[in-house]
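User: Sequence recovery, please. Input:
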């Protein structure tokens, strides 16, 4: 009895897995090339053809993978924020756990300072590229507004976590606390102090942790243990 037909399905599955992995590698190459060029040349001065050439693929391939340059920009930002292309929200990433696992208000803010430092190292320069391009491109302006809203949602989440462990700074309401955290979680601070002024990431993280505590906590809370 000829049982060769039994091998057909596994072979197709194997070929399908190879195609999927090849497509993923292509997408990763295009995203990496786009991020490099958006930062070095600017969004407006970078074409899909430029990105395809840097990635080593044909322009139609780059277009087919993302559909448009704004869509590619959003993917670059998503991966810069998350660190990879896995569909896992930032708040559920292992490196966000210190925010959830800290037992004190100061510990929450110290954990969040670590998160902001990590994200700043990956995303500060592409954030700046988007900010500059937003003045001249309506679609990029929408992307920029989304980034601002998402940063504020992150601030709300952190303030709510802090409130669950004790009072906020005397005389400060919740919205004011959110304003402070939203202002301080801007990757532009990382870019200014680490990239441009040469601070170490450890010094930046410590500074940011202190600023968050002074802006959000009561006097006693801002001196509390970060563990």
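Assistant: Recovered sequence (227 residues):
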């Amino acid at each position: 009895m000829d049982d060769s037909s039994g091998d057909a399905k596994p072979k197709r599955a194997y070929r399908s897995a190879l195609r999927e992995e090849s497509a993923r590698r292509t997408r990763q190459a295009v995203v990496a090339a786009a991020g490099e060029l958006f930062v070095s040349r600017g969004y407006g001065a970078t074409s899909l053809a430029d990105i395809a050439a840097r990635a080593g693929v044909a322009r139609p391939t780059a277009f087919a993978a993302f559909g448009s340059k704004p869509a590619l920009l959003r993917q670059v930002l998503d991966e810069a924020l998350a660190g990879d292309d896995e569909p896992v929200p930032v708040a559920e990433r292992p490196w966000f756990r210190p925010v959830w696992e800290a037992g004190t208000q100061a510990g929450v803010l110290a954990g969040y300072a670590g998160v902001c430092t990590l994200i700043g190292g990956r995303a500060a320069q592409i954030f700046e590229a988007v900010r500059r391009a937003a003045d001249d491109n309506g679609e990029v302006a929408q992307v920029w507004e989304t980034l601002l809203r998402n940063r504020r949602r992150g601030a709300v989440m952190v303030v709510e976590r802090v409130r669950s462990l004790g009072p906020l700074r005397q005389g400060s309401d919740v919205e004011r606390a959110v304003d402070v955290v939203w202002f301080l979680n801007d990757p532009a601070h990382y870019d200014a102090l680490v990239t441009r002024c040469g601070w170490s990431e450890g010094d930046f993280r410590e500074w940011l942790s202190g600023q968050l505590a002074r802006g959000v906590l009561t006097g006693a809370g801002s001196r509390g243990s970060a563990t």
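Residues 220-227 have pLDDT under 50 and may be disordered.
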